[in-house]
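Entry 14. Structure prediction run on the chain below.
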Amino acid sequence: MGRHAHAHAVARGVRKRDKIEQEDACIRDVTRTQDGCATMSEMREVVIPHNAPLKAATHVRSTLLQSSIATLKTLGLFDRYAAQLEPAMHEVVINTIAASWLPIAAGVAHYRACDRLELSEAERLAIGEAVSDRMQGAFMETLTRAARTMGATPWLLLKRFDVLWGRLLQGGSIEVTKVGPKDLTIDIRSAILPSFEYFRWGFCGVVRSGFKCVGVRTSYIQIARWDAAQDRFVLRASWV
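Output returned:
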């Protein structure tokens, strides 16, 4: 490589690095006011840090898939879903009734089939909320009672989100960051399943379900970033 070509390559690398750093800064520090305008927040507190070192997800809980399938049945979408599911995965995904850990490949097959349903973002969000309500009822009820005893703030619930994560996946990592009094980001890495848009919006629904459990209304919830190369998914949410 010539001197000039090398210099251009270095410059491109620096610009790419700066772009990533700028995106991270936006995710960390930008919140939104109720009128939708972006404001810079001086508040940033990591409530739950990432695991170190990061390890890729290896297993998914069968109850997550079964709750998702039960919701699809309720909505009359099961036949379409089953037609999209890889035949070789029907037995493990559909017929595993007992609570157990399944290989992450089962989750990949499930969410790939769900993506192929081509539902709207609003439908995916609502399904994620319904799945959370169905699967985490007793767990959420316990946390909700504690939250109401201590002032009904969602932050008490969010501080236990790593426990919720451990009920869904083995591996992957979740980081919850407070970026405003009622604003947060959730950064999910190495979880594999966020590669499917259905999962990303479904997880947004899980967060909205948590807000509902402690009696607050979601102001907004949005996908702030999806980076396939880094297997990194960031959502931003706020409540009123």
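The chain has one domain: 39-239.
Filed with the rest of this week's runs.
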